[in-house]
Amino acid sequence: MTIQFHARYLLFVNTLAVFPAQVVMAPDARLSASQEWEAVVKRAEQEGQVSVYATDSIGNAPMIWAAFQKRYPKIKISGTSMGRGSDLFPKLFAERRAGKFLTDVFLGAPTALYQNFYRAKIVEPIPPMLVHPGVTDLSKWWGGKHHYVDPEGQYVFMYESALYGPPISFNTNIINEKDIKSAWDLVQPQWKGKYAALQLGPSQGSTALTYVYYHPQLGPKFIERLYRDLEPTLFRELRQGTDWLSQGKFPLCFLCRRIDRAAMQGLPVAELNPYQVEEKPGLGSGSGALVLLNRFPNPNSAKVFLNWFLLLEGQIAFRQANTDELRVGSLREDLPPEVLPLMARRQKDKDYIWINRPEWMDFKPINNLLEELRKG
Fold it and tell me: DSSP states of 297-314 as a string?
């Protein structure tokens, strides 16, 4: 008994000796992290600028630039935003062929960044650049981790959380959503000839179509039913499908874009609510991803921008730049509810299908299927 008592007493004393040391060290660790960040910011201010390219898919980019400039007035942000990736990618590659390495960070859709930059091997790893505790704290991110679309989990960082469901839109004057229990209800024979559908080019991808193709309740059979059996009228211009839908020329549209924006303008259109149909909803980053280009000219300023943008403040700025996107939020868990539309708030009790998986990045199987259906 005496031996056991002494052993327990020594364990108790040793425990007391350990915990005070930890309590004393924790503030020092925080101070060290704070000092490191301040040193990065100071070096970035000496560089004086950061260059960021962005496609218009990320929303109102100038709002993001302005928010960064307000926070770091001594670091001039040179933000370039123009059109789609097909407009901006050639510009960047032309610069690099001319020996001009002008850009630090590129913001755009994960599929496009993966196909154009990751595969071209002109990107640098992101993790070494993430140093702010508010970014590196994985508890702040959905799923307790950072999300990358590349197999290495290093190069194409995704920050956007967008809600996905069967990408079918309808004219609300013709179809009552309350009558729809499943996406399969809208691909029955009575809807033959009553669809407009986006025709994807051979080099295009679609997160929404990836969701359908790999969905266990939908899959290739659903795509075959819609693109072949229902004989849709195809369109290439993104606005065309929405125009036809709002005019009632077609009561249904597959892969119509920016339906929420059209509805906010008072047009009689809506997209299926993923929470109202039986198919499991999806989460993905349809437009919100970033890469760090190799040979980037402003290493400290690029680090400051990356960390700021992925902090709560930067992600709120991203959300505010997308006020007309009612399903778009952030993969951060701490955005206040008041900045998120109802459909952009993840539901704790829902099991989502995560769409942007490395093994699903090859769009070739889907393009092959679409090509077969086009040939009849």
Answer: S-HHHHHHHHHHHHSHHH
* Residue 52: strand pairing partners: 79, 105
**Rounded distance between C-alpha atoms, residue 308 and residue 199, angstroms:** 38
Exposed e or buried b per residue across 286-319, where buried means at least 16 C-beta atoms within 10 angstroms of its C-beta: bbbbbbbbeebbbbbbbbbbbbbbbbbebbbbbb
* Mean pLDDT in residue range 92-110: 96
Phi, then psi, of 137 in degrees rounded to 5: -70, 100
94 against 85, higher pLDDT: 94
In angstroms, the CA 35 to CA 12 distance is: 36
Q: What do you get for the CA distance between the two ends of the chain, in Å?
A: 87
Query: Residue 83's pLDDT is what?
Result: 64
Residue 21 CB: number of other CB atoms within 10 A? Answer: 9
Q: What one-character DSSP code corresponds to residue 157?
A: E
What φ, ψ does residue 215 adopt, rounded to 5°? -70, 130
The tens digit of pLDDT for each residue in 117-158 reads 999 999 999 999 999 999 999 999 999 999 999 999 999 999
Q: 327-339 in b/e burial notation, b at 16+ Cβ within 10 A?
A: bbbbbbeebeeee
Neighbouring residues of 368: CB distance < 8 A, sequence distance ≥ 6: none
**CA pair distance 40, 225, nearest whole angstrom:** 55
The whole-number pLDDT of residue 13 equals 34
Q: Which two structure tokens, joined as six digits, stand for 21?
A: 């040391």
User: pLDDT of 21-65, one tens digit each?
Assistant: 333 344 455 557 788 999 999 999 999 999 999 998 899 999 999
